[in-house]
Amino acid sequence: MKEIISVIRINKVNETKKALVDAGIPGFTATGRVMGRGKGQVHYDILKGAEEGHPEAIALLGDTPRLVAKRILTVVVPDELCKTAIETIIRTNQTGKPGDGKIFVTPITETIRVRTGEAGDEALN
C-alpha cells in the first residue's frame, strides 16, 4: 500500500475528487486550507494583479517569501493503483505554471478499518 499526499491548488479540489472517483479511487481525505510555498517568492494573485497594472498589487511585491493557500489531498491505495492515482492527480492539476503543487508517496505498512477490524487492502474501500 502507498500513501499519496498531494498539495494542490484550492480551485482544483472538486475536479481532483471527481477524477479520482472516476479512476476507481473513491476514498481520500482532504484537509482545510494550508499555507506554503515553493521556490517562488510571490503570491500568484498579487503577481497577476501587478501584471495587470494594479498599484496596490505592485506595492505588495517584494523580496520576502509569501505563503500561498493550498489544499492537501491524501489517498491510500493498493500498490497496483498507485500509478493510476498519481497520473490522475497530475493530469487534473497540471497547468504548466508555478504553483501546480507537489505529490509525495510513502509506503504504508498496515491499514485497519476501525468499524469492522478488516485489515490490509480490504480496509481501503
Description of the structure:
By secondary structure, the protein is of the alpha+beta class. About 30% of the residues lie in helices and about 25% in strands. It has four helices and four strands. A four-stranded antiparallel beta sheet has the order 2-3-1-4, with helices on one face. It is elongated, with a radius of gyration of 18 Å. The mean pLDDT is about 85.
Are there runs of 5+ residues with pLDDT below 50, and where? none
Derived from helix and strand composition plus strand pairing, the structural class reads: alpha+beta
Q: What's the assembly state of these chains?
A: single chain
Strand arrangement across the biggest beta sheet = 2-3-1-4
Helix content: 25-40%
Overall form: elongated
| Element order: H for helix, E for strand | EHEHHEHE
**What fraction strand?**
15-25%
Overall mean pLDDT stands at 87
Number of helices: 4
Largest sheet: 4 strands, antiparallel
C-alpha-based Rg, rounded? 18 Å
